[in-house]
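Render this sequence as a predicted structure.
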Amino acid sequence: MVSIAPGRLVDRSHVLFRAMLENGWNYPVLLRPVDSRGVKPRQIANAAAARRYLDETDAPIVAEPVVG
């Protein structure tokens, strides 16, 4: 699991993609807000979808691999 702080989209994307690389995660991944008010968790299938999700909110996000 990795936390992604608020900030610029490019920085947030970098944190996610680096964590995926360093931890050997593949898609899909689960992205969910730390405080879930207004933004639903989402299973993400690719890099473009991840960027869209991160662009939708500047809230802190938690990313984790989908298991199962």
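Summary. DSSP finds two helices and four strands in the chain. The first strand starts at residue 2 and ends at 4.
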